[in-house]
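Feature request, filed as a ticket because there's no other form

It would be nice if the structure record came with a short human-readable summary line next to the tokens. Right now we just get the raw output. Example of a typical job, pasted below so the devs can see what we mean:
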Amino acid sequence: MRQPDIEIYLRDAEHPAIAAWLSTAIAPCSPWQQKGQTYKCRAGDIPVTWLPKAVGKWHSLLLESANTPWADDLECARAAFAALGVEVRCAPGGWSEEDGLEDADRWLRISSDGEETITWRTG
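Raw output as currently delivered:
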């Protein structure tokens, strides 16, 4: 089932590299518009938000559409790691308040070490 949007966290990447990757993977990106600490652009018709240091040293990439090449966060995280060579984290699937806080801290880590489930306390 496709997610309504995609959100991944990248360790050592900058928004120009992200734009170059998205331009290849989706469609050419519009110029970034900075609003406060947030950067926004469009990859084709997909709204993109880049938030540097959203969680510590981790940068958030949000693709606000179900019409991406990836069905879920994990597919996108794998593609980002393959293209950029930086550690990427994503949620293992949807989460709701009923799932509890322990499930909220369960993340997938994709790095040169492979893929693994980790506990990442972002709150």
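Something like this underneath would help us a lot:
The helical segments are 15-25, 73-84, 101-104.
The chain has a mean pLDDT of 89.
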